[in-house]
């Protein structure tokens, strides 16, 4: 968490102390938590149009669509509660979404239930289970794996968005938008900052499920080995020029 984000979280808890918890009414508790910590960015109606949203380069999530970028379920499926909890608890590095580590577990669960009221998808669909993540192979990070990953990077057209050297400046990078019409900047692998986490397992999940609502697809047709090799190559770009 950056110094500026830590200051933001500190100020939030100074001016908006933790909500009083009534575990018998989680929606009511969740609404109170939402109004204290979330409404400024995500808006009164959960549509991502809070007063602070105009100041943010990376726009807040629009909860009314029921579409979430970072999750462990297959593309097109609702996220699991655990996915939403992870985003709330750990934040999204590289964005304005801080880690709400000082909010109690009961309050975090309650605000998840309240967030679900913004979209009728939660009433009509059943969330699927998380995709299976194999154990991280021992060859991750090896020279051989990196070279195979470089080939997978080229073969799967990653450079079109992320650039030949992984700096996020591929030929298509200036034209990308998400489903809400916001500009999308491809990840700069040289910075090594990933909103869903920088562990190999986190990147495997993103490659397998895509980033919902953005041009980043789910690579369902490549083998697990090729995904791991691709991850070796991507992680090896951190700090490069």
Descriptive report:
The structure is a single chain. With 241 residues, the protein is mainly α. It folds into two domains: 3-124, Cytochrome Bc1 Complex, Chain D, domain 2 (Orthogonal Bundle); 143-236, Cytochrome Bc1 Complex, Chain D, domain 2 (Orthogonal Bundle), CATH 1.10.760.10. 39% of the residues lie in helices and 0% in strands. It contains ten helices and no strands. The chain has helices at residues 3-15, 26-37, 39-42, 81-90, 105-115, 121-124, 143-155, 159-162, 200-209, 224-236. Helix 2 (26-37) packs across helix 5, helix 7 crosses helix 10 and helix 9 packs across helix 10 (224-236). The two termini are 24 Å apart. The mean pLDDT is 91.
Question: SSE layout and pairings?
Answer:
Layout: H1 3-15, H2 26-37, H3 39-42, H4 81-90, H5 105-115, H6 121-124, H7 143-155, H8 159-162, H9 200-209, H10 224-236
Helix pairs in contact: 2-5, 7-10, 9-10
Gap from first CA to last CA: 24 Å
Major sheet: size, sense and barrel closure?
none
**How many strands in all?**
0
Spatial extent as radius of gyration? 19 Å
CATH topology descriptor of the largest domain: Cytochrome Bc1 Complex, Chain D, domain 2
Order of helices and strands: HHHHHHHHHH
Write a concise synopsis of the structure shown:
The protein is an all-alpha fold and 241 residues long.
Jot down its keywords.
Cytochrome Bc1 Complex, Chain D, domain 2, mainly alpha, 241 residues
């Amino acid at each position: 968490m950056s110094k500026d984000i830590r200051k933001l979280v500190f100020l939030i808890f100074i001016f908006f102390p933790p909500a009083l918890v009534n575990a018998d009414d989680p929606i009511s508790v969740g609404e109170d938590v939402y109004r204290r910590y979330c409404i400024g960015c995500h808006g009164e109606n959960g549509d991502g149009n809070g007063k602070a949203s105009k100041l943010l380069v990376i726009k807040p999530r629009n909860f009314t669509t029921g579409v979430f970028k970072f999750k462990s379920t297959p593309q097109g499926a609702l996220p699991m509660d655990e996915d939403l909890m992870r985003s709330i608890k750990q934040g999204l590095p590289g964005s304005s979404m801080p880690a709400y580590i000082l909010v109690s577990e009961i309050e975090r669960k309650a605000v998840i239930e309240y967030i679900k009221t913004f979209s009728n998808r939660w009433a009509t669909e059943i969330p699927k289970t998380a995709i299976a993540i194999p154990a991280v192979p021992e060859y991750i990070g090896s020279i051989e794996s990196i070279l195979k990953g470089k080939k997978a990077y080229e073969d799967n057209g990653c450079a079109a968005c992320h650039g030949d050297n992984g700096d996020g400046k591929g030929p298509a990078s200036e034209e990308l938008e998400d489903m809400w019409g916001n500009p999308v900047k491809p990840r700069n692998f040289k910075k090594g900052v990933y909103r869903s986490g920088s562990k190999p397992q986190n990147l495997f999940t993103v490659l397998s499920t895509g980033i919902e609502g953005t041009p980043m697809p789910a690579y369902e047709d490549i083998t697990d080995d090729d995904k791991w090799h691709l991850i070796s190559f991507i992680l090896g770009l951190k700090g490069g020029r």
